[in-house]
């Protein structure tokens, strides 16, 4: 593993343990070049996934990009980082076991919205406002109103 500080290509694993959700192994490493310590995560990847964007452009599935976008929607909300990790791990697992090598960005967005709906309504609305590309305040009001109504019914 290449050191993120000095670029040396050898490091020693000093400690390994599973993450809280059990979906990864957290490893503390020490660079053999500069002695700096850093953390890596090892995850199971069942298959390579390709995301098909709306303009038919393709790019590799990026778990960290998905986590960042969800974290932005949940910023300053009472949602724990472990809850976001579990949401992303669950989405990734569903995608990898679906049997499809190419996944539409729309499908991933719907999966995120389904997950956020159960976590935090404000994060859900924030994500939807970007994902559904609200162009006017009225779009936002209508969507927020439908979320509020669904909350009263459920």
What descriptive keywords fit this protein?
3-stranded antiparallel sheet, 3-stranded mixed sheet, 46% helix, alpha+beta
Question: Can you describe what's shown?
Answer:
By secondary structure, this protein is α+β, with helices and mostly antiparallel strands. The protein has helices spanning 63-73, 81-97, 105-119, 121-131, 137-153, and strands at 11-18, 24-31, 37-43, 50-52, 58-60, 102-104. The protein folds into 2 domains: 11-42; 46-153. The protein is built from 5 helices and 6 strands, in the order βββββααβααα. The protein has a 3-stranded antiparallel sheet, with no helix packed on it.
Write a brief caption for the model.
The chain is α+β, with helices and mostly antiparallel strands and 154 residues long. The protein contains five helices and six strands.
Quick one: how many beta strands? 6
Which strand order does the major sheet show? 1-2-3
The radius of gyration is: 19 Å
Shape: elongated
Chain-wise SSE layout:
Blueprint: E1 11-18, E2 24-31, E3 37-43, E4 50-52, E5 58-60, H1 63-73, H2 81-97, E6 102-104, H3 105-119, H4 121-131, H5 137-153
Helix pairs in contact: 1-2, 1-4, 2-3, 3-4
């Amino acid at each position: 593993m290449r050191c993120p500080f000095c670029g040396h290509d050898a490091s020693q694993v000093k400690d390994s343990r599973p993450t809280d959700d059990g979906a990864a192994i957290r490893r503390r490493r020490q660079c053999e070049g500069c002695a700096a310590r850093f953390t890596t995560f090892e995850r199971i990847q069942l298959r390579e996934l390709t995301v098909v964007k709306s303009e038919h452009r393709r790019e590799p599935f990026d778990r960290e990009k998905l986590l960042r976008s969800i974290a932005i929607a949940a910023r300053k909300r009472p949602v724990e980082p472990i809850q976001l990790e579990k949401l992303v791990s669950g989405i990734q697992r569903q995608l990898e076991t679906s049997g499809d090598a190419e996944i539409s960005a729309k499908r991933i967005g719907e999966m995120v919205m389904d997950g956020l709906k159960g976590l935090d309504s404000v994060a859900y609305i924030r994500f939807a406002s970007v994902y559904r590309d609200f162009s006017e305040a009225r779009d936002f009001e209508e969507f927020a109103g439908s979320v509020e109504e669904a909350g009263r019914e459920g």
